Amino acid sequence: MIPPMATGSTLDLIGDTPLVRLKGPSDEAGCEIYGKCEYANPGSSVKDRAALYMIRDAEARGELKPGGTVIEGTAGNTGIGIALVANALGYKTVIVMPDNQSKEKMDTLRALGAKLVLVPPTKYADPAHFQHVSRRMAEETEGAVWAGQFDNIANRRAHIEGTSKEIWEQLEGRVDGFTCAAGTGGTISGVGMGLKEKDQNVCIALTDPHGAALYNYYAHGELKSEGSSVAEGIGQGRITANLEGAPIDTQFRISDEEGLVWVRRLLAEEGLCLGLSSGINVAGAIELGKQLAKERGSDTRVVTILCDTGFRYLSTLYNPEWLRKKELPVFPWLDEEGTSA
């Protein structure tokens, strides 16, 4: 008999992540800013949720059978989540990833036993894009399924049924706003849909990095990208199936430099080591918080996603040489030359 404070499966460790009040961002916004600690999942990212739901969905549909293989194209975190879930359920994993992602992600996937296929980064319209390569591999591999996270709505269902309900319960049914960036669109769409079911007055905002096309789509009705970003796993140039019907009320565009300010401050002031996508999300939450606080007062509550751990980016975001090469500010404690961030 399993004790009441224990869990009977490692898969039960996915979800039910903590929610933390972020002091610096709250002070900056003039309201309450909360971060959903998705780095607390077993695979250290929000993508564990989608991985579990997509694999369970493939099982339920009879497409994934014992001893089968899960194949996916990913910037890394979804692949890590899939590898962990697949290991727990007895499946093999093949991951196709652009070769410009962090070394830590590649090393982690190999360590988890996944077969890793690296391809050059290219536009989605190119048949050599990592998503198309992974789909073709799944079609050509006996007993394999393609997870297809971008257009597989089991992805957003993980957030409708899980993440949004957790946020609602953790804040005792009082949520004013939610924002995050979109990669597949599953998180913002699913959390948005779930929160809107609870209260139509919850404001759902897209936080888009430069180089993505969704800011212009929701602001002006045109898929148009401007600038560029080094953030991994976020930024989208099309309306995926997960984004169809997403209840986006407003939108913000956040630069890498703005995101890095909050990556630096959250580590230096609050002890949170995060990736750039989290920093961009927090910067967007501050913008949404400022906007809503003017309308609803200083007790406004805004939630965002702390997507993954910064330990996954030691060779990039936390590497002064890499940051200088990208012409990005270096964290003061990493900068041997004393240039402040």
UniProtKB/TrEMBL annotation:
A Pfam family hit: PALP
Protein's recorded name: Cysteine synthase A
Source species of the chain: Alterisphingorhabdus coralli
Domain of life: Bacteria
The protein's annotated pathway: Amino-acid biosynthesis
Domain Tryptophan synthase beta chain-like PALP residue range list: 12-308
Keywords noted in UniProt: Amino-acid biosynthesis, Pyridoxal phosphate, Transferase, Transit peptide
Enzyme Commission designation: 2.5.1.47
InterPro entries per the UniProt record, alphabetical: Cys_Synth/Cystath_Beta-Synth (IPR050214), P-phosphate_BS (IPR001216), TrpB-like_PALP (IPR001926), TrpB-like_PALP_sf (IPR036052)
Named cofactor requirement(s): pyridoxal 5'-phosphate
Lineage: Bacteria, Pseudomonadati, Pseudomonadota, Alphaproteobacteria, Sphingomonadales
A GO molecular function held by the record: cysteine synthase activity
GO biological process: cysteine biosynthetic process from serine
